[in-house]
Design a protein that fits this description.
- By secondary structure, the protein is mainly α.
- It has two domains: 85 residues, Orthogonal Bundle (Hypothetical Protein Yqey, Chain: A, domain1), CATH 1.10.1510; 55 residues, Arc Repressor Mutant, subunit A (Orthogonal Bundle).
- Helix content is 76%, strand content 0%.
- The N and C termini lie far apart (46 Å).
Length: 152
């Protein structure tokens, strides 16, 4: 079942259960997906939908950081709750240990790359995780690559 259909079913369920937070978050997600569909002028596949959800999560994380700096903890908590709801529709994220292991494997395959080749290493690591259907945060991968290359 396409992601957008699953979200629509969950919106109906949230309405019946009177779950306001979940309902508003799912409506926002559906709206973002529909906007992209209209922009593309074609239905989205699940990979494109997942990219949009990842973008929404990244926006929420930025908002949490800003709200925390501004002393608005209740707003930061609301954004954190939205992230949890959105993440339920994405594949499981890789743990930090899995990311480090993936980075080390790619570095070993590339025969000791230097810091100048960080972009290539990043691209290969991201492709490896994407090919396995595992979601990773680019920032976590970037930090792991920097750490591993600096240690050489």
């Amino acid at each position: 079942m396409p992601l957008i259909e699953q979200i629509q079913k969950d919106i109906v369920t949230a309405m019946k259960a009177r779950e306001e937070q979940r309902l508003s978050t799912l409506r926002m997600v559906k709206s973002a997906l529909k906007n992209k569909e209209v922009e593309k002028m074609a239905p989205l596949d699940d990979k494109e939908s997942q990219q949009i959800l990842t973008t929404l999560i990244k926006q929420r994380k930025d908002s949490i950081e800003q709200f925390t700096k501004g002393g608005r903890q209740e707003m930061a908590d609301k954004e954190a709750a939205e992230i949890k709801i959105i993440e339920a529709y994405l594949p499981q994220a890789a743990s930090e240990e899995e990311v480090v292991a993936g980075v080390r494997a790619v570095i070993a395959e590339m025969a000791a790359p230097s810091m100048k080749e960080m972009g290539t290493v990043m691209k290969n690591v991201m492709a490896r995780f994407a090919g396995a259907g595992i979601r990773v945060d680019g920032k976590v991968v970037s930090d792991a690559v920097k750490k591993e290359l600096a240690g050489k």
